[in-house]
Amino acid sequence: MNRIFNFLFPALMVVGMLISRFVIVTSLQAAASPNTAPAQIQPASQTSSREIIARGRAWFVAKGCVVCHRHDNVAAYRAMDFQFDNVPNLTNTKLNAEYLETWLKDPRAVKPNTEMPNLELKKTEIDALVAFLTANRK
Known about the structure:
Layout: H1 2-31, H2 49-62, H3 65-68, H4 75-78, H5 97-105, H6 107-110, H7 123-134
């Protein structure tokens, strides 16, 4: 039994890393428009809210949020990893934007014993994630 575990655990880790790489590459490719040349970076005031939400969706996948959280707009990516029933579903989060910004900047500053790591997100990444998480509230 111990021999099987010594082989199986590293093999599962490699498979997990390959799946993560695939998810990140796929999400970043999906965020880019396939029919246009690479877009010039625009100031935030000129970037449409739709583009910011699309970036937030891409970051939600690329930063690994899909591993510990659910969101209906990225459900296809959850099918590739283990399915846990007790993860937070952020599809219709009722949290306000200010709270989400504070939380994403440093989760342990809000809740010291949280399991969520500090992802060292940039301001633009936080803004995009907040836009994505607050976009389709019901």
